[in-house]
Design goal:
The protein is 41% helix and 27% strand. The relative contact order is 0.13.
């Protein structure tokens, strides 16, 4: 009996020792893992990859939704307006950055629009708009650049062709999105370091988004704000030519005249026919 108690005592000490070693190992692992996460999250290269991935996930989600609406519209036929409206409402659901979704016929006329606040534009001829012209020419999915829509909103048009059961081109499903809001929502949700800032640019230099709200909607290559910073303009032109890379430039800290050196990493996001240049940057300490 006494021998068994001694054995139990030794066994208990052994178990406690094993538990203690496990806890120490787990704590050390957690510390180094979190430290690694923090370092990675504050690195522009890691941050830009994350932001690009998240933006593309949203864009591909849009593509999946409007492609479904386009296929269903073709299957239903154009005389099923109530059902088409439901499909358009589903396109908008859960997407606060959407202006509206519409069915545009083969002549470029907006036939059905949701939500209801934009129905006054049903019947409008938008056949001269870039995305509609390209849709009629190619009959392929298309994403345009920022423009002012007939609704009077600066937005980006994403379109998907509609074909009948007999494969006749009937028009397209169009979704207008506020690019700035879409990107801002993605960046806000991304787990990147507090020192990281970012911008997203069309290939013509238009800034769809910048962490600094005052720069949103400006053109990197033509706006007077940037004319005294040729290093930044040169880097921007390099970004247009090269799909990804790293570089540095000098520019004032947001809201100040204090010019500092910044390091940047960029990657190009390809979606349908279009490209967005995603840039993450931080101050050089």
């Amino acid at each position: 009996m006494f021998i068994r108690q001694i054995a139990d005592w030794h066994s208990g000490r052994r178990r406690k020792g094993e538990v203690r070693r496990f806890l120490l190992a787990f704590t050390a692992f957690s510390f180094f893992f979190m430290a690694g996460q923090a370092v990675g999250a504050n690195d522009p290269g890691d941050a830009v990859a994350k932001i690009k991935s998240d933006i593309l996930a949203v864009l591909h989600g849009i593509e999946g939704t409007i492609s479904h609406a386009a296929k269903e519209t073709g299957r239903l036929g154009l005389d099923r307006e109530a059902e088409i409206r439901k499909l358009l409402q589903a396109c908008n659901a859960g997407r606060p950055y959407v202006v509206d979704s519409a069915f545009i016929d083969g002549k470029g006329i907006m036939k059905v629009i949701e939500p209801g606040q934009y129905r006054q534009y049903e019947g409008a001829d938008i056949s001269k708009q870039e995305a509609v012209v390209q849709m009629q020419r190619t009959k392929k999915p298309w994403m345009g650049n920022v423009f002012v829509s007939v609704e009077g909103v600066k937005s980006i048009d994403i379109e998907y062709p509609v074909f009948s059961k007999e494969n006749q081109f009937l028009g397209s499903i169009s979704m207008l999105v506020r690019g700035e809001e879409l990107i801002r929502s993605v960046v806000a949700a991304a787990k990147i370091g507090s020192s990281i800032k970012c911008w997203v640019m069309q290939k013509d230099g238009l800034l769809l988004y910048e962490t600094d709200p005052a720069q949103r909607g400006l053109n990197l290559f033509t706006d007077p704000l940037y004319k005294d910073y040729p290093e930044l303009i040169t880097l921007g032109r390099r970004m247009v030519k090269e799909e990804e890379g790293k570089g540095s430039y000098s520019f004032p800290v947001h809201g100040t005249r204090n010019v500092v050196k910044k390091q940047a990493a960029w990657e190009t996001a390809h979606f349908l026919n279009n490209d967005w240049i995603i840039v993450a940057y931080s101050e050089v300490k």
